[in-house]
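Box 4.2: Ligand-aware structure prediction
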Amino acid sequence: MITTQDVGGVHIKYLYHCRRQLWLYLRGIRPEHLSATVQLGEAVHDTSYNRNSPVDLGAARLDFLDGHHWVHEVKSSTRPTAADAAQGRHYCHRLHHLGIDVKGAVLHYPKTRRTQRHLYTPEAAQLAEADIADVLTVAAAATSPDCLARSRCHGCSFTDYCWTE
Ligand code: SF4
C-alpha cells in the first residue's frame, strides 16, 4: 500500500486529471509506453532543458533546482494547468521537508515560450498536504472511480483500457 512518502509527481498529476487514471496507475497498470502524448513530453523535455540535471527525491523527481531555490519544471503542453501547478507545489513541499528553503516553482512551456511562477507559501503547503491525502484516499478505494466524460480523455494513455468494449 502506498504511503505518504511514496506519493510523487505522477500521482499528483493523475489526481488532478482523473482519479480513475490515478487508481489504475496505483495498481501497476502502465500503458504509458503506448502513448504518443507521453513520448512527445519526453522529447520536449530532452531537447529543451537538458543542460541541468534532474533532482531525484525518491518518489518525486523534479527537473532542476536553481541556485536561488526555485524548482523548475518543463512542460510539453501549450498552456498551464492546475495539475502542473500542483506538481510544482508538491516538489516544493518535498524539498521543504528536506530542510531546503525552497521559494517556489517555475513552470516552463517551451512550445509557447511561456513561464509561470508559483510561490511556495503556507497556503501552498496546506494544498500540497491535502493533495497527498487525496492520493492516499484514491489508493484505498476498493473499486475504480468512474470514467470521465469521453471528451476529457483525449491523450490519456488509459483510453484503450477504459473505452474498449
Ligand atoms: S481514459 Fe479517461 S476515464 Fe480512463 S483513465 Fe484516462 S482520463 Fe480517466
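In the box above, the bound molecule is iron/sulfur cluster. The chain has one domain: 4-163.
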